[in-house]
Amino acid sequence: MNRYIFGLAIAGLLLAVTPVAGYADGRKIFVEKNCNSCHAVTSAGIAKEVSKTGKTKKGPDLSGTGLDYDAATIAEFLQKKKAHPSVYGAGKKVKHKKKFKGSDAELKAVAEFLAVQKTKVDKAAAEAGAEDDAGDE
To answer: Could you tell me if 20 and 114 are in contact, meaning their C-beta atoms sit under 8 angstroms apart?
Structure first.
């Protein structure tokens, strides 16, 4: 009986720390679609790409995205269908800079990947060295 309970406890712990199905796909697509040219996801080990000038584009670290938004809301934002409060200006609402270019399945995978990111990061430290990329549409 004790072995059975111990086995269930171990299985529960493994399920609790195993990412949702599609996590690896969403992470891979995030990088393939160059989302990390503007955004880091430090909770998933993804850093922003650094330009030849040693700077990074201005975009928030998405490690805490899942604390505020579900996958459906994230997908709408990536398609520029919805505006959200800006992390850079109180009271200002913004749409995503670029519309996600990929299949519906890729969009869903990226949105689900971001929805499970629930680690807050220090915004000021994450944005140190960022350059404004206005006009890079």
So the answer is: no
